[in-house]
Amino acid sequence: MEKLLSSSGGGGAAAAVASQGQLPDCFVFPADRRPPASTATVSLPVIDLSGPRDAVRRAVLDAGKELGFFQVVNHGVPPEVMREMAAVCEEFFRLPAEDKAAFYSDAEENPNRLFSSTIYEVGDQRYWRDCLRLACGFPVADDTNTHWPDKPHHLREVAEKFFVATRGLGIELLRLLCEGMGLRPDYFELDLTAGDVIINVNHYPPCPDPSLTLGLPPHCDRNLITLLLQGDVFGLQVSYNGDWINVEPVPDAFVVNFGHLLEIATNGVLKSIEHRAMTNSAVARTSVATFMMPPMECLVGPAKELVAAGDQPQYRTVTFREFMRIYKTVGARRESVEKAFKI
Questions:
Q1: Contact at 8 Å (CB) between 99 and 178?
Q2: Is 34 helix (H, G, I), strand (E, B) or coil?
Q3: Residue 341 and residue 268: Cα distance in Å, rounded?
Q4: Shortest CA distance to 337 belongs to which of 237, 270, 259?
Q5: Residue 201: beta bridge partners?
Q6: Contacts for 256 with CB less than 8 Å, ≥ 6 apart
Q7: Where are the domains of the chain?
Q8: Is the C-alpha dihedral spanning 310, 311, 312, 317 positive or negative?
């Protein structure tokens, strides 16, 4: 990717051109790939996790089977932790370009970096997003390998609290799924969640012409489960019956979706659903996505308990390293990944 470093100082390609008044050609999509208008009237379920456990378990499993996406409230992550994380991330992207330049990198093997949608390039088009990626091992206090930006000065303190709280929520949701599907409650708490927790802070500057581009393309996530703090600016859309559902912001909620690893592990009971990010011309949008990852050598395959006697598993078992190699090769579209791993 040709970085616009001459004008951004490494601060991000989208941010560098956001104020130029017109959309550069490299961000303009061909007519057949431009975002069509959504006509869907379906809303994502909003699940109150403080309700009776049996009812919550059924609601989470039903929403996962039907839509693969839902929102959760009263989830145990303190509102002040959510607000502080949103604020410090917005503060990071308001820093002068020179304060962010040293952290800018297109090296995908670098777990902590600032970049501009390089992993979703298709042809000569770029997506209207700058992203700060941070990785953290657990326990947080024992993780001495985190190389994070030193500005804003309180970013590390705030982010560590957010990492711990969102990972705890993710584990609780996975336990609810296990209970609902007849797996032992800690099935996903061993190797499948023993890797880093990764946070993508997605920043979408105001776009000169949102009808010509996307913030993120249609894609499915590569992990087990994703928690999104989407803020109060609309932008997320979810695929549903050939259309796109607008995900309306809900105060103090997380948007939850399942990744390909969970689809494989549940032998197709739960689905990884495509989603995308829209842009707007009026205001910047910043969202924070938390991904729970396995180690690279972890084996990923259908749980034996979910393969009926006499049946064959629907997906082959591979290491996560092999999964990622294929995922990057075929792209993040659902159909391509499904074809690559289904037996």
A1: no
A2: coil
A3: 11
A4: 259
A5: 132, 288
A6: 69, 70, 71, 72, 173, 225, 226, 227, 228
A7: 41-298
A8: negative
Q: Of 336, 198, 184, give the one whose Cα is nearest residue 274.
A: 336
Give the CA distances from residue 238 to residues 21, 128, 216, 318, in Å, rounded to whole numbers and listed in that order.
29, 18, 12, 28
* Greatest C-alpha distance within the chain: 62
Secondary-structure class of domain 41-298 per CATH: mainly beta
**Would you state the pLDDT for residue 319?**
96
Ramachandran angles phi, psi of 237, nearest 5°: -130, 145
**Direct distance between the N- and C-terminal alpha carbons of the chain, in angstroms, rounded to an integer:** 35
Instruction: Name which of 6, 1, 18 is nearest 203 in CA terms.
Output: 18
- pLDDT 10s digits, 221-262: 999 999 999 999 989 999 988 889 899 999 999 999 999 999
State the residue for tokens 């105001």: 206
Using an 8 Å Cβ cutoff, are 131 and 114 in contact? yes
- pLDDT one-digit tens code per residue, 266-309: 999 999 999 999 999 999 999 999 999 999 999 999 999 999 76
* Mean of pLDDT values over 83-98: 95
